[in-house]
Write a structure and sequence with these properties.
This protein is an alpha+beta fold. It is built from 1 helix and 4 strands; from the N terminus they run ββββα. The chain is globular, with a radius of gyration of 14 Å. This is DUF397 domain-containing protein.
C-alpha cells in the first residue's frame, strides 16, 4: 500500500476574529500568507527558513 500524496491546507489562527485574519500555507519549499477576507487574492511567499526566523523573532520580542 502506498500513501496518497498529502495536500497542503491553509490554516487560520485560533486567535482570529471574524474580520482581521491571515491564513498560512506551509509546504516543504515555501510558506504562503494571505488575507482570509481575500482568499482568491494574492499571497506573500516566504522561504521556510526566513519564515522560521520571523516566527522566532516574534516569540522572543513580542512583535
Amino acid at each position: 500500500m502506498t500513501d496518497a500524496p498529502r495536500v497542503a491546507a491553509w490554516k487560520t489562527s485560533s486567535r482570529c476574529d471574524a474580520v482581521n485574519c491571515i491564513e498560512v500555507l506551509i509546504e516543504p519549499d515555501r510558506v504562503a500568507v494571505r488575507s482570509s477576507a481575500l482568499r482568491s487574492g494574492p499571497s506573500l511567499q516566504f522561504d521556510p527558513v526566513a519564515w522560521m526566523d520571523f516566527i522566532r523573532h516574534l516569540k522572543t520580542t513580542g512583535y
